[in-house]
Prior knowledge:
rod-shaped, alpha/beta, two-stranded antiparallel ribbon
Amino acid sequence: xxxxxTSGLATGHPPGAHQLGFxxxxxxxxxxxxxxxxxxxxxxxxxxxxxxxxxxNGTLKVFGPLTRIMTIIAASLNSCVEYTTPSDNLFGxxxxxxxxxxxxxxxxxxxxxxxxxxxxxxxxxxxxxSVSVPLRSYDREIVYIRPVPEADLTGFIRPYTPLVWCLVxxxxxxxxxxxxxxxxxxxxxxxxxx
Length: 194
């Protein structure tokens, strides 16, 4: 069991530690919040926390909603966050000899203080580790676009039934014919006037 780390990473209080910042070395990142480091192990979990290589020298970039939660935890402990990734980049399984692999192995051997990612719990994990109150419970969901109001140019037709529209058309036709007959009759009267 091993973890990706590099030697020579500062563990003390850096200058300006009261300001939020990052110190990267190899695959370890310290997110300075206050003073004492809280070591957090994490494999990536899309949607919660992402760990991606930032450059050719192996530095990491950590982002996602759980990084904010880790910052809040560290700030409440007057501390900073140190992220460590397991060498196998797994959450962890229990070996027949009772040892754990992945991030749970780092937690079991106390290389990290806590896991920095959301995990499912089975009976073995529940028996071997202390767990927090669930941060969020979720089910699978279907995602769809919410309907938005759109302009409907034929919307004025909808309030009336077809019978009403037929009566409106008949009325228009009767009015038009009446006006036409009236105008022609009036024109004939003016022509025949002495």
